[in-house]
Amino acid sequence: MRRVSRLTLAGVCTAALAVTVSACGSSSTSSSSSSSEKKNLGLALAYDVGGKGDQSFNDAATAGLEKADKEFGYKSNAVEPQDGESDADKVQRLESLAKQGYNPVIGVGYAYAPAVKDVAAKYPKVTFGIVDDNTIKAANVADLVFHEEQASYLAGVAAAKATKTKTVGFVGGVNVPLIQKFEAGFRQGVTDTDKSVKVKSQYLTETAAEGGFSSPDKGESAADGQIDAGADVIYAAAGLSGQGVIKAAAAKKIWAIGVDSDQYNQTALASYKDYILTSAMKNVAGAVYDLAKSVKDGKPQSGEIRGSLSNGGVSLSNSNPKFADDTAIQDAVKKAEEGIKAGTITVKTTV
Questions:
Q1: How far apart are CA 123 and CA 182, in angstroms?
Q2: Of 89, 50, 3, 86, which is closest to residue 211 (Cα–Cα)?
Q3: Are 279 and 263 in contact (CB under 8 A)?
Q4: Cis bond upstream, residue 104 (ω within 30)
Q5: pLDDT digits over 273-298, tens only?
Q6: Which of 96, 155, 184, 332 places its Cα 20 to 30 Å from the Cα of 115?
Q7: What element of type H or E holds 296?
């Protein structure tokens, strides 16, 4: 089913929205200047594949938006992607948000990189953010990136300690370098903890357009295959598709490890929570909020801003009591975390 783009706006009159959205073509210097003179409406998120409700990556960004709205009195905006959209569609979306008076404007996901680079050059007085990409070098762009491999390493340690079959699984949404970082860290964490544990790995698709991040049925099918092959702990880095992995794990009463958000505490996954061992989290919410705050304070962040275990940008959740109370797992995870922070453990970013 084709996803219909929706705008979630509050406090902006319909007539004004109709006028601004109709003007989504090329921007001039004058349009850039006029947008900077408007009252800042708040921050704007342009969601990645999967959109709001993925219980993972996009929802983490939403949490940051909601915190900023509450603290700063903003009326922020969040825009859904469309199936099969082009870079030109993303450019149009970001231009529209900048023209309306939102600041910062954040592309949630590496797919927004070309569009952010294009639009940021046209609107130098607006701050832009891009999550999971550090290729844009501009004075008004903040590259919000993370050491995903570090949290994934800890997930691997936990999986190696939790498995009874000596077989664990990894399900990646799309076979791209970003998701390969998750697998690399996870594999290394497993192997460093117990070399006898096997890791089964599968990527759902080669491109995001094929639904690797937005197809729970694909995730469920992949997890079923790994469970049939003996896996009793499966780590998914697959966006919305990860819900299918968690569903399959719960059905077969094995452990799932979530990603990006603390999936044990996600309302939509409540019926599966007893089978979510932990989650390898990255603080997308904090990065979004911090960028919004920097703009409000008149000192906009820019350049690469990278979250790590050392600065709290990535972590392993402790919400499941069965995980938190397992002394053997906790001791192993703590030792690994200390090693990464101290530099005695260097986590790989490629398989």
A1: 34
A2: 50
A3: yes
A4: yes
A5: 999 999 999 999 999 999 999 999 99
A6: 184
A7: helix 284-296
What's the N-to-C CA distance of the chain in angstroms? Answer: 34
222/225 Cα distance (integer angstroms): 5
Which residues 6+ apart lie within 8 Å of 31 measured at CB? 23, 99
Give the three-class secondary structure for 168. strand
Question: Any idea which residue has 């096997």 for tokens?
Answer: 198
**147 within 8 A of 307, measured Cβ to Cβ:** yes
- 151: its two tokens: 């949290």
The C-alpha atoms of residue 60 and residue 313 are separated, in whole angstroms, by: 12
Q: Which residues contact 288 (CB under 8 A, 6 or more apart)?
A: 43, 45, 61, 63, 64, 65, 68, 106, 129, 131, 144
Token pair 């460093």 in the structure block, residue? 192
Give one word for 240, left, alpha or beta, with left for phi > 0 and alpha for psi -120 to 50. alpha
The helix or strand, by DSSP H or E, that contains position 172, with its residue range, turns out to be strand 167-174
DSSP string computed for 300-316: ---EEEEE-TTTTSEEE
| Residue-wise pLDDT tens digits, 292-307 | 999 999 999 999 999 9
Quick count: other Cβ atoms within 10 Å of Cβ 334? Answer: 12
What are the pLDDT digits (tens) for 14-40? 333 333 333 333 333 333 334 344 577
Q: What is the 3-state secondary structure (H, E, C) of 87-129?
A: HHHHHHHHHHHHHHCCCCEEECCHHHHHHHHHHHHHCCCCCEE
Prediction pTM value: 0.85
220 contacts 248 by C-beta, under 8 angstroms: yes
Please report where in the chains the tokens 């704007």 appear, as a residue. Answer: 44
Rg of the chain in Å (alpha carbons): 20
Residues 294/140, Cβ–Cβ less than 8 Å: no
Q: How many CB atoms lie within 10 A of CB 19?
A: 12
